[in-house]
Design brief:
Number of helices: 0
Number of strands: 11
Radius of gyration: 13 Å
Oligomer: single chain
Distance between the termini: 37 Å
Length: 115
């Protein structure tokens, strides 16, 4: 099983980034996919989730209206479009896949929002 996150980097406040997470080794469409993040000295927190029914999504209050999670089951990939980025969005972002039997984590990708 692999969850390969990419797309992180450094951006100025107000800028945008698009994270991608390419999955392999499991039946992607059977899993809810989420993005979590962890800032230095803080606990890991959920950012966004998209369920197996791609029309159903959930967002942390702190990112509602700025972040959008989508998935492409044909490409086994989940995306996180991040707009209007703030310094408090700086963190390592992790991809997660979960169903009733399994819970998988990918390696993180660093997002730094700084002027």
């Amino acid at each position: 099983v692999q969850l390969q996150a990419s797309g992180g980097g450094r951006v100025q406040p107000g800028g945008s980034l698009r994270l991608s997470c390419a999955a392999s080794g499991f039946t992607f469409e059977d899993y809810a996919m989420s993005w979590f993040r962890q800032a230095p000295g803080k606990e890991r927190e959920g950012v966004a989730c998209i369920h197996t029914n791609a029309g159903s999504t959930d967002y942390a209050d702190s990112v509602k209206g700025r972040f959008t999670i989508t998935r492409d089951n044909a490409k086994n990939t989940v995306y996180l479009q991040m707009n209007s980025l703030k310094s408090e969005d700086t963190a390592v972002y992790y991809c997660n896949a979960i169903n009733w039997r399994r819970n998988y984590w990918g390696q993180g990708t660093q997002v730094t929002v700084s002027s």
